[in-house]
Amino acid sequence: MAEVLITPQTATAAETAKREAPETTDGFHLVIDALKLNDLHTIFGLVGIPITDLARLAQAEGMRFIGFRHEQHAGNAAAIAGYMTQKPGICMTVSAPGFLNGLTALANATTNCFPMILISGSSEREIVDLQQGDYEEMDQLNAAKPYAKAAYRVLHAEDIGIGIARAIRAAVSGRPGGVYLDLPAKLLSQTIDAVKGKQSLVRVVDAAPRQIPAPESIKRALDVLKSAKRPLILLGKGAAYAQADAQIRELVEKSGIPYLPMSMAKGLLPDTHEQSASAARSFVLQEADVVLLIGARLNWLLSHGKGKTWGAAPKQFIQVDIAPTEIDSNVAIAAPVIGDIGSCVSALLGGIDASFPKPSTEWTGAISERKNKNLEKMAATLAKNPSPMNFHSALRAIRDVLKTRPDINVVNEGANTLDYARSIIDMYEPRKRFDSGTWGIMGIGMGFAIGAAVTSGKPVVAIEGDSAFGFSGMELETICRYDLPVCTIVFNNNGVYRGTDVNPTGGKDVAPTVFVKGARYDKMIEAFGGIGYNVTTPEELTKALQESIASGKPTLINAVIDEAAGTESGRLTNLNPQSAAMKK
Ligand code: ADP
Ligand code: TPW
């Protein structure tokens, strides 16, 4: 509403007119008001027409706008905020290229069942649909659809409230996922009567309603569980997302059944819990006869529930999930339990009383024996002090520091860096580990770190392969700009997986996996006022990490790792038969 210079005489007339004429509001204000009304107070984004004005207004209205250097990382920050809070993370981008940059994060969120809303400005329908060549023209709604759980467009200012309500509900109800909301520029500047605008806003009631499992599904599941000789519980990141921490712990402890956490479910129970079978993973997957899956899919990360990983012993699966279509996705499920994990686990607990058969000591004893043997082997590997440092000796140093700070968030990506850190770094609290997830995607590092730091207000340690770090490295500036307590540790082995490949032709170009040798990633953060460390021994790494955490400042530790230490694709060698064959 523009201010006008008026004489005292006309002022009275203008004031009278203003009192009589209804005040107006516009699309910009309605978007902000709708988000705030639903307790969404942070936007991760990147500006440009028409988002700049929206971002300015959001800030002026008391929201937090965290501006990024690339939309993919803003989207990843929003996604992880959604995973941590069960409220959709909000990402805002401009049209076409900005939208497409954000779309990778939206797709990754949908794949991982993280709730987020990508809001993008777009060109006018008239021009897009006639393909008349607008500035950053694109049919974004249709482009988003295959990669989003839902996609909506709002054309009238009075529909903004409903549009945002639908987006919130779609993102968090049932199986969570990414939602796209298309806001044409013309919509944002549309004005409507302020009272009408206010009335059009919707505060979403019970956005993710409990979904109570059918009693017969609980009975069936308990019957299968009771019949087990070698039961196993498998906890996935759906279980962590559900925030049913106490019930899950009770189920594990009351039943006495050994459990395995998937990588992002680590810490749901502390990794040091005596019933954790992580150190005997291969053994329990092969030998178990009944497997209770809670918020975990039988996708590639679990070898699709079949084959060598699962051994020859016949298996029966019980699967607790909110998505009925997940059942029988890869193998037959003997006992599906459909509902939200809190309700399902509570119902299962109702059937686990003193008469419930405890797993035999033969089974738990065999697991303990394996665990101890493997832990001893791992301890011997971790105790070595090779020079240069390798993944194990560096991770030992990090593990020992993180043990003293269970509240710290851990972000992790890379190939070897991911595989080794996942098994070596223990987690003690739920929803503190964020990684490459269902796709095994590289590039989540700095986005997740920023999202986790902003959302939790707690420090973040990002353990990054040097290649993985490169995908989002420019966001170091964002970390410094907002002065976030993020310590990035780059496992620098001079390349993708390792740094020793050679060009077989002897030509000038280096091999496809090789980077600049001896790069100093620590200097990158210094360019933005952060603190850099270059370390070559576990002792130096320990000291640098302790100092970093104590400082609460943006820091980066360039950890020099033996360039020959990594294996191609980390532990995914089975997915890489071509490469294995080429090396023979
Ligand atoms: P992981 O990668 O850790 O194995 P996945 O992402 O494959 O885990 O599986 C998560 C599963 O959890 C999905 O199938 C999803 O439908 C389910 N899920 C997510 N939230 C809930 C919830 N609140 N209640 C029940 N199931 C849920
Ligand atoms: C978006 C393929 C998988 S792992 C990896 C790449 C490029 C990097 C491994 O090297 P890094 O780790 O990070 O140095 P380390 O510990 O082995 O030395 N593009 C995307 N996602 C994936 N997964 C790839 C490429 C890949």
Our measurement of the CA-to-CA distance between the termini, rounded to an integer number of angstroms, reads 73 Å
Unreliable parts: 1-11
By DSSP, the count of extended strands is: 19
- Count of all domains: 3
**Major β-sheet profile:** 6 strands, parallel
Portion of residues within helices: 40-55%
Shape: globular
Reading off the top of the CATH hierarchy, the class of the largest domain is best stated as Alpha Beta
Briefly note the structural class of the backbone.
alpha/beta
Q: The CATH topology of the largest domain, please?
A: Rossmann fold
Taking all Cα atoms into account, the compactness measure Rg is: 26 Å
* Annotation field: number of helices: 24
What does this structure look like?
The structure is a single chain. The protein is α/β, with parallel strands linked by helices. It folds into 3 domains: 24-200, Thiamin diphosphate (ThDP)-binding fold, Pyr/PP domains (Rossmann fold), CATH 3.40.50; 215-367, Rossmann fold; 384-582, Rossmann fold (3-Layer(aba) Sandwich). The protein contains 24 helices and 19 strands. The strands form 4 sheets. Strands 3-2-4-5-7-6 form a 6-stranded parallel beta sheet, sandwiched between helices. A 6-stranded parallel beta sheet has the order 15-14-16-17-19-18, with helices on both faces. A 5-stranded parallel beta sheet has the order 10-9-11-12-13, with helices on both faces. α8 links the parallel β6 (150-153) and β7 (178-184). α13 packs parallel to α15. The longest helix is centred in the middle third of the chain and has 23 residues, at 361-383. The chain is globular. Bound molecules: adenosine-5'-diphosphate and ligand TPW.
